[in-house]
């Protein structure tokens, strides 16, 4: 098992164990909803065991890794991302387990990428995020679903992309320009 998953498990185990952890089948069904339909069946899925530890629930057959909803969160949130982003995402989970959050967490990862200590693809890679107020396991539906996309483009700038850095819910925009974590946000208007 990946040591980063084990480290992340330490953070969530004490709290997630108290929450009711859905079966692996339910977690997988919910997690893959963030992915494009044609990629869901082959995506790897990380989720929670009964002790609240983050574990691999399903091996993947394509380029996506999906992350199940944390049973301790009041809101529903799942994500799928390109497998090339896993070192970056896993390092983020590891830092979170160490209670390193916010900009400090970003700064550490960005420096590690710049120093060649943390792998990050130089070409664009996509992250899909699906949130809602809940998930009905019987129907397989998310309540109040909202899907947004993040396209990681390390070190991209407004000049290299032609994108604004001003947040928008009607057009893509570039967040964290010039950093290893530079990414294009695509957030459609909420209903």
Lateral strand order in the biggest sheet: 2-1-3-4-5-8-10-9
Q: Identify low-pLDDT runs.
A: 1-17
User: Span between N and C termini?
Assistant: 40 Å
The total number of structural domains is 1
Order of SSEs: HHHEEEEHHEEEEHEE
Instruction: Specify Rg, calculated over alpha carbons.
Output: 17 Å
Biggest sheet layout: 8 strands, mixed
Helix proportion: 25-40%
Q: What spatial form do the alpha-carbon principal axes imply?
A: globular
Mean pLDDT: 91
Number of DSSP strand runs: 10
Structural class: alpha+beta
Strand content: 25-35%
Give me the number of helical elements. 6
Explain the overall architecture:
- It is a single chain.
- The chain is of the alpha+beta class.
- The chain is 29% helix and 26% strand.
- The protein has one domain (3-186).
- The radius of gyration is 17 Å and the shape is globular.
- The longest helix is centred in the first third of the chain and has 14 residues, at 3-16.
- The chain has six helices and ten strands, in the order αααββββααββββαββ.
- The chain has an eight-stranded mixed beta sheet with strand order 2-1-3-4-5-8-10-9. A two-stranded antiparallel sheet has the order 6-7.
- It has helices at residues 3-16, 24-31, 37-40, 86-97, 102-114, 158-161, and strands at 44-48, 54-58, 64-67, 76-82, 125-132, 134-136, 141-143, 146-152, 173-175, 183-186.
- β6 (134-136) and β7 form a beta hairpin.
- The protein starts with a helix and ends in a 5-residue tail after the last strand.
